[in-house]
Design brief:
Elements (H helix, E strand, L loop, with lengths): L3 H4 L8 H5 L3 H15 L4 H12 L5 H11 L8 H23 L3 E2 L2 E2 L1 H4 L2 H21 L3 H23 L8 H24 L7 H25 L2 H4 L5 H4 L5 H6 L5 H12 L5 H13 L2 H20 L6 H15 L3
Length: about 325
């Protein structure tokens, strides 16, 4: 394959439902398993859990795990519980992130911290993590536990790395790569690796690399969308990263090319407690004009090509085709 599918942009990108099709029945079983795992005899937990399961999104990580388990066409039944664990870990990280960032919306719906409280949000994130780990322990596989507990640590370290940054405008491309590796790519890599451990162990290494490179591409694409798309596409207000003083790859790439006056515009935005839409739009325009978005897109496409190259080692199955389609979906997604 060697990047051929990525270069052939004239072909239509597969819809997400088409990518999920080979594992649709198991994906529905994952949703039921998530409900089972988070059930608790406590009304507030049940109320928050119900809300979270409404905003779970496209089940991207569980789908990757399910597809990985199918690449040798010998899936292990344990993958359903594994996939539920992955999505609950992801939801827990989102709940904590939203609380830290004081975000009001997630995928167009109120966050737990805005609908309930920051205290409930923190405790609920902890609950999701602990229930996910209980379900993981029930599988009785120390190797699976080793991979996923390491990821839990990486997610925490990534968040702390971002919070500890003293001068975010001094962020380098290397700093950014380390951050998104910990916060995004680690979980996608683990989803593919542990999925392989539930039915395609011989492809574990290739699928781990695929997931890592896909995760890097996913986050770059997401960060570009924050500069280019509206809230109806991303499920959150456009330009939210700049409003929250988050420095992502488009801005990092553009900063060295800015004139002194243009750099002053960026510095002024980051000095504001609550930048307005006009200030955000001005910085977005500067970043686009100085090639930051184009540079970020090229880097994202490089990560995507590396993900495709990893799939070269897999047999030609329906699951592999779906994983290849997932790369194009990540790079071209508009919804």
């Amino acid at each position: 394959m060697s990047g051929a599918a990525l270069r052939t942009r004239t072909q239509p990108t597969a819809a997400w439902r088409e990518i999920q099709a080979p594992v649709q029945e198991r994906r529905e079983a994952v949703v039921l398993e998530m409900r089972r795992v988070v059930t608790a005899d406590q009304p507030l937990i049940e109320q928050v859990s119900s809300h979270l399961l409404q905003i779970r999104g496209k089940m991207f990580r569980p789908t990757l795990a399910l597809l990985a388990s199918e690449t040798a066409e010998t899936p292990d039944e344990r993958v359903v519980t594994l996939a539920a664990v992955l999505e609950l870990m992801h939801l827990a990280s989102l709940v904590h992130d939203d609380s830290v960032d004081h975000s009001a919306l997630r995928r167009g719906l109120p966050t737990v911290n805005s609908l309930f409280s920051h205290q409930v949000s923190v405790i609920m994130g902890d609950f999701l993590y602990s229930r996910a780990l209980e379900a993981l322990v029930s599988l009785g596989d120390l190797d699976l536990m080793r991979v996923l507990t390491h990821v839990s640590t990486q997610l925490t370290i990534g968040e702390m790395r971002q919070l500890a940054a003293v001068d975010t405008l001094a962020f380098t491309v290397e700093d950014y790569d380390m951050l998104i590796q910990a916060k995004t790519a680690s979980l996608l890599s683990a989803a593919c690796e542990t999925g392989a451990m539930c039915g395609a162990i011989q492809h574990r290494r290739a699928l781990r690399l695929y997931g890592e490179r896909l995760g890097m591409a996913f986050q770059v694409a997401d960060d570009i969308l924050d500069y280019t798309e509206t809230a109806s596409v991303t499920g959150k207000p456009s330009g939210l990263d700049l409003k929250e003083h988050k420095v992502t790859l488009p801005l990092i790439a553009a900063l060295p090319r800015l004139s002194r006056s243009d750099r002053g515009v960026v510095d002024a935005l980051f000095a504001m407690d609550a930048p307005g839409d006009a200030q955000v739009a001005e910085v977005v325009a500067l970043v686009a004009r100085h090639g930051g978005i184009d540079d970020a897109r090229r880097r994202g496409e490089q990560f995507a090509r590396e993900a495709e190259d990893a799939l070269d080692r897999l047999p030609d199955t329906q699951a592999r085709t779906a994983l290849a389609d997932a790369i194009l979906y990540v790079m071209d997604r508009r919804s």
